[in-house]
Design goal:
The chain has 2 helices and 4 strands. A hairpin with a 2-residue loop joins strand 3 and strand 4. The longest helix has about 50 residues.
Length: about 130
């Protein structure tokens, strides 16, 4: 009986070919992952904007804002402290055509991204602000 101590040239070539085919099949997958990682920054910008808007609506006084500004129509600019994606957020209050509406929509936008939130309103206050 003879004992084998090494691999033949055919076995080494076969293993090399199989490993190279496996590596080549992973290249498109890696390209897709890298592309998704580049676009992930845009997604996080929208998440940051959403969190900032939620913080503003929860505690407007922490940002030195008047809580009554949410009931006023028109455009308001809110400074965003220590922001990565923008220096200011623009808020628009959308007025409903329905006089019985019990809420109003607020549109917050920054760098082309928009977040909508609704707030409860008094029907009498909403009717007075409509032209």
């Amino acid at each position: 009986m003879s004992s084998r101590r090494g691999l033949t040239l055919i076995e080494v070539l076969a293993a090399t070919v199989l490993l190279s085919m496996l590596a080549a099949s992973c290249v498109p997958l890696l390209r897709l992952v890298m592309n998704d990682l580049r676009h992930q920054d845009e997604h996080f910008d929208l998440i940051e904007l959403s969190r900032f808007v939620d913080e503003i609506l929860a505690e407007p006084s922490e940002f030195y804002l008047d809580p009554d500004m949410f009931s006023e129509s028109g455009e308001h600019t809110i400074n965003w402290p220590e922001s990565k994606i923008g220096t200011s957020v623009i808020m628009h209050r959308l007025i409903s055509d329905d006089p019985k509406a019990n809420h109003a929509w607020l549109n917050f936008s920054c760098n082309g991204k928009s977040v909508f939130r609704w707030i409860p309103v008094d029907n009498e206050d909403d009717q007075e602000s409509q032209p």
